Amino acid sequence: MALRHKTGQAIYDFFTDVIADRRADPGDDVISQFAGGVVDGERMSHDQMLDIGFLFILGGLDTVTSTLDCAVGHLGRDAALRDGLVADPSSIPAAIEELLRLHTPVMQVLRVIKEPHEMHGVKMEPGDHVMLMLGAADTDTSEFGDHADQADFAREHNRHLAFGGGAHRCLGSHLARAELRVALEALHRRMPDYRIPDRAELKYSPGIREIEYLPLDFTPGAVVGPAR
């Protein structure tokens, strides 16, 4: 915990310097836009800019790497899906959406009820805590059909909740998509033939969905295209 606090403070110190620099010498970057921008008729406060900068950093860390190992784990057990991405890298963005749906990075989130509400006969009052099961919602057959638990990279209208929704939608969702696309493009260009060993048992964590240990068998030297 002490290390977390120290690291968090270091990130805030970093963005304090960046904000001061952009106020003195603004550019076309996002922090400069924050420093000179107006939201709902008001300028962003220093603390607001710090908090958003902090979230930008956190949004691209464990959830992205966790989703990546879940994606590789899924593809490593489905050669047809994997080979499809190798043959047509342009299909990777659609594949990412489906893998995000099946392996929702944050499976559940805690929220506090603000207004009286009733759902399926359960009454909820202001102040009550509720757990939203995003992972369950993303395999809901009423939304995704009878085969909601299976990957379909051609799925249309993929309204998954892997990044949450509404006011709490993940700030780093666009960055995450870009990182996942670049990673999967590079992986399947450099290592197109890989699989999970037959006897391997993949264990997933219950909070942020990630594989504890990811063993891979692959063919060394098999490279598709230039090794960039």
Quick rundown:
It contains 9 helices and 8 strands. The chain has helices spanning 2-24, 30-36, 46-59, 62-75, 79-87, 92-102, 134-137, 141-144, 173-190, and strands spanning 38-39, 42-43, 108-112, 117-119, 122-124, 129-133, 194-195, 217-218. Helix 1 (2-24) packs across helix 2 (30-36) and helix 6 crosses helix 9 (173-190).
Could you please describe the fold and organization of this structure?
This protein is mainly alpha-helical and about 230 residues long. The chain folds into 2 domains: about 1-60, no CATH class; about 60-228, Cytochrome p450. The protein contains 9 helices and 8 strands. The strands form 4 sheets. It has a two-stranded antiparallel ribbon with strand order 1-2. Strands 3-6 form a two-stranded antiparallel sheet. The chain has a two-stranded antiparallel ribbon with strand order 4-5. α1 crosses α2 (about 30-35) and α1 (about 1-25) packs across α3 (about 45-60).
Report the order of strands and helices.
Answer: HHEEHHHHEEEEHHHEE
Q: Tell me, briefly, the overall form.
A: globular
CATH fold assignment of the largest domain: Cytochrome p450
How are the strands of the biggest sheet laid out side by side?
A: 1-2
Q: Any chance you could write out the topology, listing elements then pairs?
A:
Blueprint: H1 2-24, H2 30-36, E1 38-39, E2 42-43, H3 46-59, H4 62-75, H5 79-87, H6 92-102, E3 108-112, E4 117-119, E5 122-124, E6 129-133, H7 134-137, H8 141-144, H9 173-190, E7 194-195, E8 217-218
Antiparallel strand pairs: 1-2, 3-6, 4-5, 7-8
Keywords:
228 residues; mainly alpha; Cytochrome p450; 2 domains; two-stranded antiparallel sheet; two-stranded antiparallel ribbon; 46% helix; globular; disordered C terminus
